[in-house]
Specification:
This protein is 51% helix and 12% strand. It is globular, with a radius of gyration of 20 Å. The protein folds into two domains: 12-182, Rossmann fold (3-Layer(aba) Sandwich), CATH 3.40.50; 186-386, Dehydroquinate synthase-like - alpha domain (Dehydroquinate synthase-like, alpha domain, Up-down Bundle), CATH 1.20.1090. Strands 1-9-6-4-2-3 form a six-stranded parallel β-sheet, sandwiched between helices. It is an alpha/beta fold and 387 residues long. The protein is built from 14 helices and nine strands. A hairpin with a 3-residue loop joins strand 7 and strand 8 (162-167). Helix 9 (265-277) packs antiparallel against helix 10 (281-311) and helix 10 (281-311) packs across helix 14. It binds nicotinamide-adenine-dinucleotide and fe (ii) ion. Fe (ii) ion is lined by residues 146, 197, 201, 267, 281, 285.
Length: 387
């Protein structure tokens, strides 16, 4: 017997090495009647020249492009609102997110906010709160990654430190374009952190408590296979095209999985680390991942054992021992990338753990998906183990 389920994803996915260099033509074919495109990216990517070939091809195909390049990591609300007014002033007809998760998340909200004034951003936080329709939306990731190119999620930093999510089907793009060439120059620390983020998406989707389904399972397993085999090769040689292509595809598959079978306690405990201490999202996840998996093992060992078959091929033994093997392999992988392993290594003081645990409890949207209930005391114990 199969439980009823719903699976939604982006209607069109283009996977093409070098696609950025013919972006204008690609968009012209898909949106023949439009002219004004708003390109959403961050200052570093814009200044780096990485996007120049894409921008040149937009111009060559008659696109009038307004580039908004003031996205910052873990984008705060004011960045979203300022970018929205610029897009409105430019009369944007199409929004293109071109960057990491931060740029793509801002692009989603611009597409929803720019064409209407009935609903404020502050009314959109939560699940299915968006009422408006949006401008046409295209996503092109430069990290592998958040999977934001195929998810219905946008994460905004509200106030000083709180990360809040807008989750609504309107945020699923019309088109996602995967060009691994854009990721060749991603530095090793960012490759590792964003790659671990993608692996966490796959793991948490596979154990998601309510909405896990046969399609999300298929995608999560394939994602974890691609990501776990290619993370270290991509870190060792950033110009390894095959590894970069596998990482980008794996991150997108993981995104499609968790867009339907949502993430849980690893993300809930990672958000306060990013929100309060501005630790990059993927690294925040990596710091708590093994400790959350150990905590969850009591409830999720049968599923973790299935993932162990993917990440540690040939592993044998009980579900519990396979789970231990999975956790150990993930820890070894994280250590081999040389990203920090402990909370104390990223400037967190032991006195900060209580606030982090209490902030993590606010992530009820995520915690409900965890295979084992997490109390505030549990969260504190997990942070202590990760310290
Ligand atoms: N919407 C979702 O489904 C979802 C899922 C997970 C995380 N997120 C959010 O996404 C954000 C994190 O995104 P991210 O991890 O992709 O990082 P990011 O977008 O914040 O970028 C991090 C840094 O990497 C640089 N960078 C990006 N691509 C590069 C490239 N190809 N070469 C060189 N440098 C490059 C950027 O300039 C930036 O300085 C967080 O806000 C997180 O909460 C969203
Ligand atoms: Fe994530």
């Amino acid at each position: 017997m199969t439980n009823a389920f719903r699976f939604q994803t982006v209607p069109t996915l283009v996977v093409e090495y070098g696609a950025a260099r013919r972006l204008g033509a690609l968009l012209r074919a898909q949106f023949p009647a439009l002219t004004r495109v708003c390109v959403v990216t961050d200052g570093f990517l814009h200044a780096s020249g990485l996007l120049d070939p894409a921008l040149a091809d937009l111009a060559a195909h008659g696109w009038d492009a307004t580039v908004i390049h003031d996205v910052i990591a873990d984008p705060p609300e004011h960045i979203v609102l300022e970018a929205t007014s610029r897009a409105r002033m430019a009369g944007a007809e199409l929004v293109l997110g071109l960057g990491g998760g931060s740029s793509m998340d801002v692009a989603k909200l611009i597409a929803v906010l720019a064409p209407q004034r009935q609903q404020e951003l502050s009314e959109m936080y939560g699940v299915n709160k968006v009422t408006a329709s949006r401008l046409p939306l295209v996503q092109m990731p430069t990290t592998a990654g958040t999977g934001s190119e195929v998810t219905a999620v946008s994460i905004v930093t509200v106030g000083e430190a709180k990360k809040m999510g807008v989750v609504a089907p309107q945020l699923i793009a019309d088109l996602a374009i995967l060009d691994a060439e854009l990721t060749l120059g991603l530095p090793v620390a960012a490759t590792a952190a964003t790659g671990v983020d993608a692996m966490v998406h796959a793991i948490e989707a596979y154990t998601s408590a309510h909405l896990k389904n046969p399609v999300s399972d298929l995608l999560a397993v394939k994602a974890l296979d691609l990501l776990s085999r290619n993370l270290l090769p991509a870190c060792e040689d950033g110009h390894n095209r095959q590894a970069r292509e596998a990482m980008l595809l794996g991150a997108t598959f993981a995104g499609q999985a968790f867009a339907n079978a949502p993430v849980a306690a690893v993300h809930a405990l990672a958000y306060p680390i990013g929100g309060i201490y501005h630790v990059p999202h993927g690294l925040s996840n990596a710091l708590v991942l093994p400790h959350v998996l150990r905590f969850n093992a009591a409830a999720a060992a049968p599923l973790y054992a299935e993932l162990a078959d993917v990440v540690v091929p040939g592993v044998t033994g009980s579900d519990e021992s396979k789970t231990q093997a999975l956790i150990q392999r993930l820890e070894q992988m994280i250590a081999a990338t040389a990203i920090p392993a402990r909370l104390r290594d990223v400037g967190i003081e032991i006195s900060g753990l209580e606030r982090m645990a209490s902030d993590a409890m606010l992530q009820t949207r995520l915690l409900v998906n965890n295979p084992r209930p997490v109390s505030e005391a549990d969260a504190l114990a997990i942070y202590a183990a990760a310290f």
